[in-house]
Protein 1
Amino acid sequence: MKKESYAARLWQNIKKHKSLYLMIIPIVLYYLIFCYYPMYGAQIAFRDYSPKKGIVGSPWAGFRHFRDFFNSVFFGRLIRNTLSINLKNLIFGFPAPIIFALLLNEMRWMKCKRVIQTVSYMPHFISTVVISGMVLQFTATDGFITQIMTLFGYPKQNLMLNPALFQPIYVISDIWQGVGWGSIIYISAVAGINSELYEAARMDGANRFKQMLHVTLPGILPTIITMFVMRVGNMMNLGFEKIILLYNSSIYETADVISTFVYRKGLVDQSYSFSTAVGLFNSAINLLLLFTANKLCKRLTDYSLW
Amino acid sequence: MKKNKTDLFDIVNLLILLAVALVTLYPFLYVVFASLSDPVALMANSSLLFKPIGFSLGAYGKVFQNPSIYRGYFNTIFYVVVGTGVNILATCVAAYVLSRKQFMLRRFFTLMFIFTMYFSGGLIPSYLLVKDLGLINSRFALILPAAVSTFNLMIMITGFEGIPQSLEESARIDGAGDWTILFRIVMPLAKPTIMVILLYYAVGHWNSWFHAMIYLRDADKMPLQIFLRDILTRSQLGAMTGQTDVEDVGQTIKYATIIVSTVPILCIYPFIQKHFVKGVMIGAVKE
């Protein structure tokens, strides 16, 4: 009964606002074709896809591709690298913009502050290709970072051939590129803090450093938690393009992550079904992380993404 | 608060921030100095650069003699202009409909679009779709699959929702249809928000390379970033792994190429950064 009345109301709505419905058709088609059809196509993870037979025509393979992946020699290495790079990025890369924003907030000389901010945004506007090219140049045998490293006892040799150095280089270059841009959101959060809180803290004899720790930092905590959830929920997909540009076969041991493996297996070796299975596994983990982080956030702050 | 005298805290803070700014800036300065250096002198040099060693413009001459850089620039401009045009049109139409309170399926479609931000079919199914559509090696492969960014769409909806309904109603009384209202009233009033997402889209197209690498085949359709990748990372790889079939390009030429391809962005970003900053804020509010 209720359903019928909904359909009737919808029909009335369509008749009344025909042009709105016509306008949205191309957009809905776009989403159906370019976003939802690939989700339907992801079923080739459970088939032995061959381009000639098409998606539905290819024979079923069950969970064989997933089993192959879990049993493959690369499985442990890929999980280890994906987790290790992301955790390093989280531990060092996440607090960096927060600290930068706190320090900037304490800066007195406005002109100088503005110049430092503008300079710090600059790397964000440079393309991944150029950033990666610069990193490769600087860490080549005669690059200037390699030269500096020789002072610390490293051999004068291309740093990108040393498996122990890939992850630090990757994380440091990420921080270098993102610290200024990432601080914007925190700077705007700081601007929203009630200035009476600072007055009160000063009355209590708190110096500037203590005010920063006990007023500013708690004031932006909700923003920090939100950003943390978003970051964790995106973990499995981060940095894939940059790793493809930076790595080479001699450092796969520490540089190869799930998403780069999907790219190599799927588009270079053309094992479509196998790499779709690996990609689906990656998406599932990512979704799980997002839900967990969101739930945790809801419990901690009463705030959630949905 | 401002009455306090400058104390040790301020000095230390200033020094730290200046150090951060310097570390951010130095790699770019190094690239500038190296690109202007004499190639032989640069090879022999083994320390930081604080000015070009043995000034030479030869590398820039070589870069400008290379026809691929013009082709790359031309293609990139094409993708940025056409791609961003499609993006803005599609995003504005979608945001207009989804911000109309009288549109009954508003919530349904909004959720349907948002879902794609958190889950996707993945790289291979998307690639196979583009292949099955016959878009491989077509310029449309860089434009159609990226027609709408859901994140930008959400920013746009927030922008359109901020426009008073009364304006729309009075236009409707005057006989204006939805298209007229969108183009004549809503879009002009939402110009600041449109500016923000226009810049997001444009910079995205300018910097994009991965789709060009997997979808395009012909060298004469490749954007600048692919050309840059070939010069900056491929030849490096050849030198590292000892392959001789990949020709190594001189150091100074690489640095000059970075400068030539990056200077347009570096020149305009100080002027447009405030729009981007605004985008970060709107995005944050929406989230």
Protein 2
Amino acid sequence: MSALDILLVILRIAFGAFVPLSFVAVLVWMERRGAAFFQDRAGPNRCNVLGFRAGGLIQNAADGIKLAFKEDIVPGHVKHKFYFILAPMLVFITALLCFAVIPFADVLILGDKHYIMQAIPMDIGILWFLAVVGFGVYGIILAGWSSHNKYGVLGGLRAAAQVISYEIPMGLALVSLLAVYGTVNLTEMAQFQGRLLFGFIPMWGFVLQPLGVIIFIVAAFAETNRTPFDLAEGESEIVAGYHVEYSSMKFALFFMGEYVAMFVSSALIVTLYFGSYQIPWFTTETLVTYARPVVIAIMIGLPVIGYFFAEWMKRNNRSHYYRENDPRQKETAVYVALLWSLVAILEVVLLVYLVFAHGGVADRILVALLQIGTFLFKTFLMCFVYVWVRWTLPRFRYDQLQKIGWEKLLPLALLNIFITSAIIVSFG
Amino acid sequence: MITTYLFFGFALLAVLGALGLIIFKHPMNGAMSFVVTLISLAGLYALLSAKLIFAIQLIVYAGAIMSLILFIIMFLNIQEKDLPLDPNRWFYLAGGIVVVAPIAGLLIKISKSLPATEVTVFEDGFGGVKEVGQLLFTQWLLPFEIVSILLLVALVGAVVLAGKRGVN
């Protein structure tokens, strides 16, 4: 192994471990701001460091500190303390492990070496996801059972029954997708989606599997225990379900596990159905060939985006009544300065690239970075769909939930398999 | 080299899990140690470069079947006091060991008599999803279909048996 190999191994594992963790903060923030937006209220707007509120992001830091410094209680009536402590770890670790096989850029070619851009370069892809998601159920079952609390057991039962039932439509939706792509390897699936249908439509999964994408997204919502399928927690009925007895960082692990799971399933939906890291109409090879024009386009586009973003901040981040020396406008001025310096740094980096480093390896790395950016942007949008649905739809009743899973999604998924295979056999 | 250590680690965990399954009294402890056994077996399959079997072991056995068993243990909320008293179990265990010991001796003899051959590295793609699928659906199609009909019969039987109770 050369030094480059080791560096890339470290970089990929670091990406696989830290990106989901940083997205927890982003998603909690998005959830709060999203809730406030849908309910027509202000959202987190008090927490600040020296007057800087970062649009509510500081609230996350405050919450994190609060959770870390709370007393960590293991209730006296808990008999199986080992399982009680193991459960939140299982929920969190399985959620994080799922991300390990999701590709975040096309295979990176440096010289004569190929690097698969996944945290674990494994070719069983989607099977690994199904396996690890199955383990997530253990965490929920153990938490509900070892809490020795009626609400806890009810929540655990509901969550386990729901996750096990919705794995079936999810798996069946995947079967027809696998028939289309002809592989279980997620990197190969992503490469497949770089092609064009009829020469002008990007061959993304949702174009080829319009029914499958709906089934998969609904099942993915149920798998992550998010509203409208969150009756495992159901505050109004069973308090907090399986994590009712947990406090402090053990609760925080459940909480973070939920958001990591949401991020990972968004990433998976994007990978399977929305073209993964592919920029529509620009395959990896096109991008590498036309690296210089692309960079020049980015250099022109960046200040324009920066200008509109700065204007948007100035318009929105101010006091809504008259104040002497409005502190919020001062805050905005600092943000705008930061934004423009970021734009300037990026421009300088891109200029250095254009003048000194273009061609060969630098092009490949630039394209990989562009693709990582695209992948994260798409995943971010998909996470917004999660937030959007959560604050739009009410919770299902338990019988409705099981009915949707078994009587609607399961036959639909089977129908989808038959239609897909008929089309593949007759035209493929 | 590292594969040898991994093999010993997984083998040890598998045996310990199996021991835990029969020694622990509480059903939840037994089930969890069985999960450890199943996961270590998956690790052993992965060391033999059987990637598909590794994934299936994790999804079907360690994932689906065991989570259903845990679900049932939680659903029925079995406590130690619900379990039947079993005063003779050490006696049975000793009897079982006496009966099984000759077979174990035989196995050890067989494994000792195996010729010491070099470990061969399989060609690329051995045990992968595509390769196993190709084999299964070309050379072994008829056995595969017969096994799936057997599973279907079991499934229909389970539904019929469960349905009867609901009608009454």
Protein 3
Amino acid sequence: MQELVKRAKELLADGTVTRVLGWKKGDLAYNPEPAFFENEEALSEFVYDSFCGANLSKYMIEASKKEGKTLVFLKPCDTYSFNQLLKEHRVLREKAYIVGVGCAGKISAEKMKEAGISGILEVEGADALNPSETLKVKTLYGDKEVSYKDVMLERCHVCKGKDHMIYDEIIGESRDTLDGDRMEKVREIEAMSPEEKFAFFQSELSRCIRCNACRNVCPACSCRKCVFDSTKFDSAQKANVDSFEEKMFHVIRAFHVAGRCTDCGECSRVCPQNIPLHLFNRKLISDMNEFYGEYQAGADAETKGPLTAFTQDDIEPSEARERG
Amino acid sequence: MKKISKENLTKLFAAICEEASLILPLKNNGMTNFALWSEGDEVDLDTLKTVKSAKDAFFPQSETLYNCHREDGKLKISPGERMDENFVVFGVRACDKRGFEVLDNVFLSDPVDSFYKARREHGTVVALACHAPEETCFCSTFGIDSAEPGADVDTWFVEGDLYWKANTEKGEKLTARLSDLLSDADEKAVEEEKENIRSIMKKLPYAGITTEGWGGEAEKEKFDSPLWEELYKPCLACGTCTFVCPTCQCYDIKDYSTGEGVQRYRCWDSCMYSDFTMMAHGNNRTSQMQRYRQRFMHKLVYYPANYGGMFSCVGCGRCVDKCPTGLNIVKVIKAFSKKEDK
């Protein structure tokens, strides 16, 4: 972490950048917040640990409108989002100085609580680059231990890889965290009967409180005005009038980000009700891979996406009907 | 003081349901929220904090105010239903119970909200003391005693028993109705439990948080502070903090076209949203900084100014738990006291 701060200070001092976008220490053991640091002094509050899951690329939309360059710290998976935003002309490359930071998988307090640890006071071993295999947790109710892997975010178990897709320089080495198959659950749901599928999504989505955290954190949801916020149509929603509507919001959102979603997993990380929203996106990714060939949104900033490029070999809509 | 063994709780719930409906924390796919109980549901009284507060019991996220439709060529308006059956909310924590009082000030003062009032009249609150407070709790900042919530009925889990104490007429009535299942108990075990809870409360990381410097008289100074400009920046403008909050009471009224008519409903609104308090001439808060400031000014300045100094935060810590970017009201209070120290 000190290396990141040192480099940030150098880049501020030599005028390469005018501000730094990183993470600021929280007031508990696990709640750092995304932050802009305007000067060297402010960097005393900088932190980069295993709880820094927040993807900072979307904040670059705002930073691109400011004077001067912003140094932004991006983890390997965050760089896919940055590329995608670049492709959509939502961020400016020349306004960003990207320091790719190593990542050893991110964890969350939510996952620790799921693992039965409450009253968390201190967490030992949550080093961003070299975390302990077993975390030592000081709680109000005695000392606890938990395996790092057990409290890792779902997305880290299906990590896209250790490479940064775009960067100016890299600090710190990443670690392999992949130990799952990201399409496993998708196949499981595909194998369900229509009634079972409906029951599954009904049960998950019935918890939705329409807080819009999934939409607002999503780097692919970068419309200046969302149709669901418009007061001009019946589509404006703050609550679900009936159970059809709560599904409509999530299904429309999934379709809107199809071909642009990098599967960064932020939607599921921030959902206060722990709804596995990434499953919608992965189903569409899986279908697009099948129809148009393997494609990873954000792998670069130039390639046309499967739904924005037309080729004569494109699948006919009738095939979708035949598949049911 | 009465008690009932844990094994008999299902019987107790069934007995409550003979003459009332029952709302209590239920687990659905790992997440616990207040919901209507029916036999076989997974009751979860161990989870300290439900995701949403117990607020829905009296002020649901959305409710129909009236319906308009055509009948025999004429426009017909039918009013939404007011609650007319008794219900019990069970397992409410002390913070959420205080949250109801915050809502009472708003909805029961003139003009009285008849939907809210009907629910309050028909609802009996059975509170549960907090056996194991968490690091995000700070209810004591607002003078709340999580060891003794002071609801219609207060309960405590001590080992294998649920201890039960009625505090109000409504509580006595419910207790009398359930007397076959409740046996007499002495207070000793509960007194020890209360002491235990209070000693944990003193050890919490937020134990020293105070509201000093806040309140109605601080309006101008707080409103004009340059700190907001720094504090709001990571805010995503989502409504998580407002929708999990036991005291946020702002709502919007909307029309929904049903195809054959219009359903006028009200739903929770969030001051974080871009169309919050949108008026014909536009919006008087146009930036996220202003919206962010509004939320905390309302809780810590405007509300106490309107209601005799009472704050509209109860220290439940749900915003601390749930904010996607690690922001919360405690960080705001701390930032201001840090600045004043300088």
Protein 4
Amino acid sequence: MSDAGFDEWLHAFVADDGYYVECANGHGYLPPRRICPDCGSTEFTEESLPESGVVETITTVHVPAPAFKADAPYDTAVVDFGPARITGIVVDAEPGSIEIGDAVEADVGASETTGKDVLVLRSV
Amino acid sequence: MSGVRVAGVGLTHFGSHPERTGRDLFAEAALAAKEDAGVPLSDVEQLNVGNFAGPLSEGQGHLAPLLAEAAGLTCPATRYEEACASAGVAVREGVRTVRSGEADVVLAGGVERMTNHDTPEVTESLAIAADELFEVRAGVTFPAAYALMATAYADAYGVDEDDLKTDLANVASKNHDNAIPNEYAQYQRELTVEQALDAPPVAEPLALFDCCPITDGASAIFLVSEEYAAEHDLDAGVSVVGTGQGADRMALQDREHLARTPAADDAAAMAYDDAGIDAADVDVAEVHDCFTIAEVLAIESLGFYDPGEGLGAARRGETRADGDLPINLSGGLKAKGHPVGATGGSQIAEMTRLLRGDHPNSDKVDDAEVGVTHNAGGTVASAVVHVLEVAE
């Protein structure tokens, strides 16, 4: 199954070309979007995402859904990249070692359970 | 506009009944409500039934006519799905229908069958109430989503992690205490703060006893017009005087607040305005404590506490059964149980019993006249609030 808009957005991180979509009035979101939830603008452009963002909240998940069984325990975080926030799984760090305020970058990784592409976050 | 009375309520036991079908659970609740109301099934003009995961848990779609048939009804029937707020919405639409004069008798409620699947499968099916692309695929389970909100709350208000966990454990312990006499509750047993703090982590900072259980159950409410109640000399001493609903962005990452639930603020404002009350008028409340932090966010959204002040309410005793404003005298979702699509109706049923005086905890709120219910969907991307009053 493919999810047009989302798939292209996710895979752009492979080439370090992560982006968000910005409406005519400067509100940032993740695609696909046809209308801005803030202002109703229907004009969007793709804009480069800043290379790193700041962890806004984070949790260590010990009881996962089946799709992440082999990944647990893992940290999942909401990261503020400035114009948009992104939720992802922290990799290359001990669970519980990343804190609110830490800087991370976004990338594409693979779930240890399913091998499917996942938005991952890594300390910078 | 017609006033709306609760003519009768019905509940199944909330608990682990893996062998029982959704249709059997709902029929039991509906027939119990009929007995309580003293209204013949032939007078029911509409069935509004809440259900979240029937298509996943039982492979059953098109639930409403099936449940109507199971309950002995031949009226039009509609299923409402708003995640954990499904039955709240079903009740709200029933209230609006009776008020409009389109019907004098609406049966509203909900049902959920959950324990016929194991915990990982239920975790997966509950997660569909979050944003599938941006949250579920990023490993966010429901406990994780509320854990993200709890962590954001502690950060926003400068709360130490140990204090956060202790205050949340007090919420769990309080709600277990309240459930002990409730014959419908899944956990009629004490939970100490120490036991809650010693439990294994689920999604930090939330541990096992910060989370509501997985529950089978059903709820049913007879909503009737004041005219119908008078004409049939019904013993219907509780009115639904306010209803409100609010919405927010689906994914946490798209919310303005990670430590607040503005959908519930909006639902409360709408319901209070509808009822002509304010937060200070409320004597007792049933709120959506799917996780302990959710009760904290709820009592802040309902205006009982300023943002950041609700966390310690249970520890300070203010929301305990003998406190100034008892919260979740039923035991809440935490201890009474949370059959997702039935919960909003269960809250109305429990509040009705509390105000009528026939709830085992009614003696804790002898003089209560105004009760509020707060039912939330997902991470409160939707919220429904009702105001119930002892009728004149």
